[in-house]
Design a protein that fits this description.
Elements lengths: L1 H14 L10 E5 L4 E5 L5 E6 L5 E4 L5 E5 L2 E5 L5 E6 L5 E7 L5 E6 L3 E5 L5 E6 L8 H4 E6 L5 E5 L4 E5 L5 E6 L6 E4 L5 E4 L6 E4 L5 E5 L11 E7 L5 E6 L11 E4 L5 E5 L8 E6 L9
Antiparallel strand pairs: 1-2, 1-24, 2-3, 4-5, 5-6, 6-7, 8-9, 9-10, 10-11, 12-13, 13-14, 14-15, 16-17, 17-18, 18-19, 20-21, 21-22, 22-23
């Protein structure tokens, strides 16, 4: 009996990191499922808002949710009242948004090829034009875009396989070629850049000299083959959450996101294929604001 008990404990230890229940409550975008959701620490959907192809999401300090989808961006209260909205022009696509300290919202538009900062009245307060290869379609022009504390912008030029840094006036400071089609760039507090490389099935972390100091490759995590690497969030613990977009033939076949340590151990994964199709962005709700994404 003692031998059986010991075996049970070992088995439980092996299985625990692979559970599908949420270890954290979180906000997420289900791109193919057409919804933004809040999920409890027990894995229950506590809040849900329908929209077409959501791509980026945040919980604000006032408790509201900010997110973008193919045709614009909105701020919605927990009671589902829209308190702020930006509608993009026709024939454009929105794939990134970010709340800014002055109350504005950063939005990047494919088609119009621009970064805009939209004020609380829904008016464009600042515009940065982006120079894009004319052969790249609106859908493939841009993904993750972030403004830094020093006023610079980092933009994923998805269709051109590069991440571009611009100053506050839109001057290109550098263009970093990366594998595949970058979907997210996260400027870290130590000056590093964390970049998910889309269909290159890869993640890289670059230091200030653009040297790769950490990477995650397609087959580094047993049971979590990297597919299209999309949104991510670096936690105060040093662990990182990565969204493994399961479109392109992989829906329902493996976990939709996972939390991985610096030494590439999966400590939490989520694979609810009954209620979610393709989770492509996540915002963990129970960590300090020091978490970055």
């Amino acid at each position: 009996m003692k031998l059986i008990s010991a075996f049970a404990l070992i088995l439980a230890a092996l299985v625990a990191p692979m559970r599908s229940e949420a270890a954290h409550p979180f906000l997420c975008c289900d791109h193919n499922g057409g919804k933004v959701c809040v999920v409890s620490a027990e894995g229950a959907i506590e809040w849900e808002y329908a929209c077409k192809s959501p791509q980026d999401c945040w919980r604000l300090a006032n408790g509201n949710y900010l997110f973008c989808f193919v045709s614009g961006a909105v701020e919605v209260t927990p009671a589902k009242q829209v308190v702020w909205e930006y509608k993009a022009p026709e024939k454009t696509e929105v794939h990134a948004c970010q709340p800014l300290e002055d109350g504005r919202v950063l939005v990047v538009e494919g088609g119009t090829s621009r970064i805009i900062e939209v004020d609380r009245a829904g008016k464009i307060a600042k515009e940065i034009k982006l120079t894009t290869d004319p052969k790249v379609t609106a859908h493939n022009q841009y993904r993750g875009t972030r403004k830094t504390q020093d006023g610079h912008y980092f933009v994923c030029f998805k269709g051109e396989g590069k991440v571009v840094e611009l100053d506050g006036d839109g001057k290109v400071l550098r263009a970093i070629k990366v594998p595949g089609d970058p979907h997210e760039v996260v400027p870290l507090t130590d000056g590093h850049l964390l970049i998910t490389c889309g269909d290159a099935h890869k993640v890289i972390e670059l230091d200030a000299s653009e040297k790769v100091v950490w990477e995650l490759n397609e087959n580094d995590l047993p049971g979590n083959t990297l597919r299209l690497m999309a949104g991510c969030q670096r936690l105060p613990s040093g662990n990182t959450l990565f969204c493994n977009y399961l479109g392109h033939g992989h829906i329902g076949k493996q976990p939709q996101f996972f939390e991985v340590t610096r030494d590439k151990k999966v400590v939490w994964q989520f694979d609810d294929h009954t209620r979610f199709k393709t989770i492509n962005q996540i915002f963990v709700l129970d960590v300090p604001s020091a978490a970055v994404r």
